[in-house]
Specification:
The chain is mainly beta. 15% of the residues lie in helices and 38% in strands. The chain is built from three helices and eleven strands. It has an eleven-stranded antiparallel sheet. A hairpin with a 4-residue loop joins strand 5 and strand 6. It comes from Kordiimonas lacus. Keywords: Lipoprotein, Signal. This is Outer membrane lipoprotein-sorting protein. InterPro entries: LolA/LolB/LppX, OM_lipoprot_carrier_LolA-like.
Length: 226
């Protein structure tokens, strides 16, 4: 795991000609039920975005090359996040409200992206951002019928990739939903997956979490991450 995976794009094209003439369309009632379920799920996700102001959790990250990293996630909406790696990974990822910083303490390098041009915008914004990111809902997977998947990408920056947030109903959470994690699909068609456990929501977080020790120019590299 040498650098932050590049964010890419996934374009799904659907043309009317792709439906054969002899293919029967689902009954109108069935289509309506599916649409109603999707709208309800979208409202639930919007409630989550509006109701969860902070989130703290353990994370497990699976990179496309098979590498696994672990750490602790701190999130404050809108615009703040910290991926604090707790294993031997010498990286730190911090968003300070405007900029996403990827800090490599091993080689003394900091790479920056405008936060609004990364897929994490869908996670760190509010419900109002979902429409601008062309968010769409999928319902369920075999064995996980209650799963809600929200996919989003920035139409103005499609090369930055697509993020899919995974939610499950959970009455123990303030908004009735639990964020299980997400996947990011990059321009190469490779997926980086992250899962969350041990979550705490709407607790006070220290403002120092959104800062970092800049390793550039240091004669001795250190792994201090705050």
């Amino acid at each position: 795991m040498r650098s932050l995976p590049l964010f890419g794009v996934y374009l799904a094209l659907l043309a009317p000609a792709a439906v054969a003439q002899d293919t029967a369309l689902p009954p109108l009632e069935e289509q309506t039920v599916i649409e109603d379920q999707s709208l309800k799920a979208l409202r639930q996700v919007q409630d989550y975005m509006d109701g969860v102001e902070t989130l703290e959790a353990e994370f497990r990250q699976h990179a496309p090359n098979g590498n696994i990293a672990t750490g602790r996630l701190y999130l404050e909406r809108p615009g703040y996040v910290r991926f604090d790696y707790t294993d031997e990974t010498p990286f730190l990822i911090v968003a300070d409200g405007k900029t996403l910083n990827f800090v490599d303490y091993e080689i003394g390098q900091v790479t920056k992206w405008p936060l609004k041009k990364t897929p994490l915008r869908a996670l760190l914004g509010g419900s109002v951002d979902l429409a601008s990111l062309q968010a769409h809902i999928e319902m369920g997977r075999p064995g996980f019928e209650d799963l809600i998947l929200l996919s989003a990408r920035d139409p103005e920056n499609p090369e930055q990739g697509e993020i899919t947030l995974n939610f499950m109903p959970d009455d123990s959470m303030p908004t009735g939903l639990r964020l299980l994690g997400w996947q990011v699909l990059d321009a190469k068609g490779e997926i980086t997956q992250l899962t969350l456990t041990d979550q705490k929501v709407n607790t006070a977080l220290d403002d120092a979490l959104w800062t970092f020790e800049d390793p550039r120019g240091l004669t001795k590299r250190r792994r201090t991450r705050r």
